[in-house]
Amino acid sequence: MSPYRRAISLTAADAGCDRAGAAIVRGVNFSLAPGEGMQLFGPNGSGKSSLLSMFAGLIRPVEGVLEWRLDGAVSNAAPAGGVFFLGHDASVKPALTAEENLRFWAQVNGGGDVGAALKAVDGASFRHLRAGRLSAGQRRRVDLARALLVDREAWLLDEPTAAIDRDGVAVIRKLIDDHLSRGGIAIVATHDDLGDGFKRLELAR
Ligand SMILES: Nc1ncnc2c1ncn2[C@@H]1O[C@H](COP(=O)(O)OP(=O)(O)OP(=O)(O)O)[C@@H](O)[C@H]1O
């Protein structure tokens, strides 16, 4: 796998976010350089999804600063074309097959080898199944395969292994490791322990 062409980093300094006017997370500090990943821990409702949304630029920090650097360009907002955000909810179209969903995504977002992406998530056996009929774990794999169709240096993943079996967790772990070894950065909210190679940010309720 070839390295990403652009160097990316993200720094948070005392960043915090609210939801519906209520303080959710405060005092977030970290920095991620190319090749580094971070795991978000914390009980349900502690703000992991909210933080990922803030990093993706979907909600504003109410205090502190986020600083993205992509190929030397500095910005407080997530760089367009530099971030892949995997939310909680499956984003597939139920009437299209797994493969058609990925082709559609590739068309809209400019490129990618759908066959290779399906293979990488061990999805050959369900490529012709309509997404509405996929199991939750199969759908999650299709969701993740989208990341392989676009060259985004930052991955923000909200519970990528939810509903995924043990073999699937290893598959996804490898995708994330490969992404990091290409020089990408990743922030992953998950209850699975990603191990020592990842920075850790633990949120309290
Ligand atoms: N759109 C929203 N509007 C108002 N409040 C919200 C919204 N989304 C989340 N919240 C609230 O923000 C808090 C943090 O929720 P969030 O989903 O970020 O937590 P989480 O750590 O990701 O939880 P889980 O582990 O259950 O996914 C919760 O109290 C939740 O009710």
UniProtKB/TrEMBL annotation:
Has UniProt tagged this entry with the keyword Cytoplasm? no
ABC transporter domain residues are: 5-203
Can you say what this protein is called?
A: Heme ABC exporter ATP-binding protein CcmA
Which NCBIfam families does this one have? ccmA
**Which UniProt keywords are present, listed alphabetically?**
ATP-binding, Cytochrome c-type biogenesis, Membrane, Nucleotide-binding, Translocase, Transport
Q: Which Pfam family, giving just one, matches this sequence?
A: ABC_tran
Q: Which Gene Ontology molecular function entries are recorded, alphabetically?
A: ATP binding
Q: Looking at the record's lineage, which domain of life comes first?
A: Bacteria
PANTHER family per the record?
A: ABC TRANSPORTER I FAMILY MEMBER 1
